[in-house]
Design goal:
With about 425 residues, the protein is of the alpha+beta class. The protein has 15 helices and 16 strands. Strand 3 (about 70) and strand 4 (about 75-80) form a beta hairpin. The protein binds adenosine-5'-triphosphate and magnesium ion (MG). Adenosine-5'-triphosphate binds next to strand 6, strand 10, strand 11 and helix 11. It catalyses: tRNA(His) + L-histidine + ATP = L-histidyl-tRNA(His) + AMP + diphosphate + H(+). Keywords: Aminoacyl-tRNA synthetase, ATP-binding, Cytoplasm, Ligase, Nucleotide-binding, Protein biosynthesis.
Length: about 425
Amino acid sequence: MAEMQAPKGTKDMLPQDAYKWHYVENTFKDTAKNFGLKEIRTPIFEHTELFLRGVGDTTDIVQKEMYTFEDKGKRSVTLKPEGTAPIVRAFIENRLFNEAQPTKLYYVIPCFRYENVQKGRLRQFHQCGVEVFGSKEPSMDAEVIAFAMEVLKNLGLKGLKLNINNLGCPKCRPNYNEALKNFLKENYDNLCPTCKERFEKNPMRILDCKEKKCKEITKSAPIILDFMCEECDTHFTKVKEYLDLLGIPYAVDPGIVRGLDYYTKTIFEILNDDFTAIGGGRYDNMIEELGGPSMPAVGFAMGIERLIMALDKEGIEIPSNESYALYIGSRGDEAYKAGFKLANDLRSKGVAVEINHMGRSVKAEMKYANKIGAKFTTILGDDELANNVIKLKRMIDGEIFEVSLENIDEIANTLK
Ligand code: ATP
Ligand code: MG
C-alpha cells in the first residue's frame, strides 16, 4: 500500500545514521558559538502571505514548490520552504531591532518544497543556517562567509569551492534589468511559460531558471557586475579584500543569481562538482519590506543532506561515540537483579551499559555484546555475588579487571 510508505521526497533518518546528523549539527553549533551566533526557533508553518512577500512571488519556491493548505479556521498557511522570512518576521514581531546590534542568529530546521525529486533534492530536507541583522559593513558579509568555511573545515570537508557575486541594489538594478530585457527580447518566444511571465516582472529571475532552453538562452546574457553603482562596487571590492585577508579562496561567478528574490549586493554559493551545498547573501531590504525598520541583513543556509553526501563522497570518517562501555550478562535470578541495579547505577555515572532484556542464554548474550561493540563485558553469577566482586573483561585484549561490586565509582572509572 503506497499510503503506508513515506511520502515521495521524504526520508526517515534511521538510527544507524543518527551519528552523521549529530556530527553535522554539533559541529555547526559548536562553530556558531565562536562566532557569537545564538539559536532561534520559529514555527514549522507560517501565514502563506509571509512567503509571498518575503521569498518573492516570481521565485520557483512560491510559484511551484510550496506546501500550502487551508487550516480548519480557513487561514492559508504554508510549511516553511526556507528559514529566512520566518526569522525576519520573528525579529520584527519581537522587536529585537531595539536591542544593541548586530543580531546574530543561527537555526537548524526542516524545509518543505514540492520539488522534482532527484538525488539530493527532497521534498522535506534540512538546513543549518545563519542570519545576521543590523550591519551593512562588508566585513559582516566576509564574516558570514568565513563562518560557513569554518564549519566546512571543522567537518573535515575539502572539496567544496566558494563562488561569489554581487547582485547590485535597487539603485543599479533597473539599468541592468533594461539591458537584460533587451538581450532576452530576441529569444522571448523560446523562453518557458514561467519565464515569459518573469520577463516583465523580474527578468533577473530568468537567469536562475532550471529549464534547459532558458539556460541555453541566458548563457551569453549581460552580467550585472558591469552595471553596478559606485556603492555596490566599493562594497564588493571590500568583501573580496576581507576574504583575501582571511586567506579564503573564492572565484567570482557572475552567473549566480540564487533562487530567492530578496538578495542585494553580495551573494555566494559553496559547491562541488555534483551540487550546491550552501547558498546565501545579503538582503538589505527585506526587514523593511516585511514591516520592520530599515535594517541591513546577511545570511546563508546549508543543506544537511547535501553536507552528509559530501562527507560520504570525500570518505570522511565521522567519529561515532555511540558505543556501549559495558554489557552485563548474568546466570540466575539473583545475579540478574544485581546486574539490573548495577546497570542503572552506572548509567547515572555517565556510563553506557546494556543488559539482557531478551531472555538470552549466556552464550547468546556474549554474541550480542560483541555485535553491539561493547568495550567491556562481564558475567555476574553466584560466585561474584558471594565474593562481592565484578570481573570486567576488556574485549580488545581480553584483560580482566577485578573491582568491588559495591564500588560504583571504581567500576565506572575502569570502564572509561
Ligand atoms: P537549488 O539551486 O539546488 O535548487 P536553492 O537555491 O533552491 O538550491 P536555497 O534555497 O538557497 O537553495 O537553500 C540552501 C541550501 O539548501 C542548498 O544549497 C541545498 O544544500 C539545500 N537545499 C535546497 N533545496 C533542497 C532540496 N530540495 N533538497 C535537499 N536540499 C536542498
Ligand atoms: Mg531550489
